Fold this sequence. Notes:
The protein is an alpha/beta fold. 38% of the residues lie in helices and 16% in strands.
Amino acid sequence: MSDLSKVLGVHFSPKRQGSSWVLLEEFGQGVREAGADFEIVSVIDAKNLQGCQECGSCNADGQCAIDDDMNIFYRAFEGVKRLVVSTPIFFYDVPSQGKAVIDRSQAYWARRYVLGRNREGLEGAQGFLLGVGATRGKDLFMPVTLSIKYFFDALAFPKIFDTLFFRKIETPAALTQEQRFAARSAGLAFAKA
Ligand SMILES: Cc1cc2nc3c(=O)[nH]c(=O)nc-3n(C[C@H](O)[C@H](O)[C@H](O)COP(=O)(O)O)c2cc1C
């Protein structure tokens, strides 16, 4: 991926066909309606995914020393300029699988902030956050918004991004047509922006 006409969906739930997956698919449908390409990379396909070991190796060369399924994400992030993260809320934040992806992005952080190597060609880059949780608290999406803000920053994406949140959704069956449409419309607008 290397241009604005492609959107990468990053799926953080371990559940196949769950709420965050369905919402991401709807978003992707909107992206395709706008004439852009859409593909998803999911933690479901990264069964062998370790957390950051804090070995410090990326501070020296900007590369992660662990050779595992994080490579799926490192490859997917190459050249990507439009990124939508879709995540359920697990204990007020992203699921541990998604947190592993974020923490392993320390390699990008080290390139930027330790080695002074900024990622090239990200003019016009944009991120988006889709969040879904079963409860309805006012602050339900506060921690995840912060986590994704600094994840995007590590990737050299803007720290300001649009969000779309769904409360009181335990399973996809609870999603209304209006909510699905809202996700699709957000994808359309995102791809057209
Ligand atoms: C381990 C776990 C923790 C959860 N923690 C929260 C929570 O803190 N707040 C909330 O509103 N929902 C919580 N939920 C519910 C999920 O966010 C909700 O069911 C969501 O629709 C699941 O999306 P998914 O099917 O894409 O995984 C939790 C679910 C699990 C399995």
